Amino acid sequence: MSNTIDKVRILLVGDSGVGKTCLTHLIAHGESLHRPGWTVGCNIEVKLHEYKEGTPQQKPYFIELFDVGGSLSHKNSRSVFYAPTDGIILVHDLTNRKSHNNLRDWLFEILSKEGKDTYKPGSNVGAHKTANDEQNAFDPEEFVGAAQIPILVMGTKLDLVDERRQPKTVQKAGGIGKTEQCGAEEIWLNCRDPRSIAAGTTDAVKLSRFFDRVIEKKQQTRDTGFYGSGITDRRRYNTTSTMPYNMTNITTAANSMKPNSPTQTQTRNVLIEPNVL
């Protein structure tokens, strides 16, 4: 019997300040993070997920959540975290329409593999674009065929949305999660409320279903021996980084990662330096 637990890597991307770190902590630990710091590089959290829970196919998986910093100053170097990737969570602020519109830019930045825009020359994440430019630059059919990777759209700061301005208004305005564009489900939540994705809630079911889709996609590519359908990168990677976790080492690793005080978060913060790429 194997003592290893397989893993999948999921990126959380979005503009700086939309709440990715709080969201990542909530998903991984089921609790809110009231004083998050600015992410420099990437924060990594790990969640144990039961694949197809309650069925004969149930199996534990480690979900690696890569919270990638959204600062423009690291745009040319953060692509080091983009591959290999099994799933993508696009995060936007429900009170910030611009952060929602920029999700298209994040998708193309990831799919470009080198961290460069695939929009027309002169475009940039966070840059102003007219409606016509955006429509001409984004081809939903071409995107779906190129990505073939599970995507989930999550809107944060639901508690700050005016009662007269429902989240559905935000969805209709941008529409990045519509089936005809990238086939993604959408979740709106308050990251400061642990009940937002508590077990048994509709959003918790959506999130679990998304994790299952990510795992299924990885299983399909592994069984067929073809990895070209996901995101790949030309850089060399240490082969040990793609090996599954060994159960005999989990206790030792967990003990070594224990925080010095109850207020510390069990995360890995990776600092990017452009000159190392």
From TrEMBL:
Q: Which UniProt keywords apply?
A: GTP-binding, Nucleotide-binding
Q: Which domain of life is it from?
A: Eukaryota
Instruction: Spell out the InterPro entries in the cross-references.
Output: P-loop_NTPase, Sigma_54_int_dom_ATP-bd_1, Small_GTPase
What the entry lists under PROSITE patterns is as follows: RAB, SIGMA54_INTERACT_1
Does the record bear Nucleotide-binding in its keywords? yes
Q: Name one GO molecular function term.
A: GTPase activity
Pfam family name, one: Ras
Per the record, the gene is 101896358
Transmembrane regions listed in the UniProt entry: none
Q: Which SUPFAM superfamilies match?
A: P-loop containing nucleoside triphosphate hydrolases
Name of the protein in question? Rab-like protein 3 isoform X1
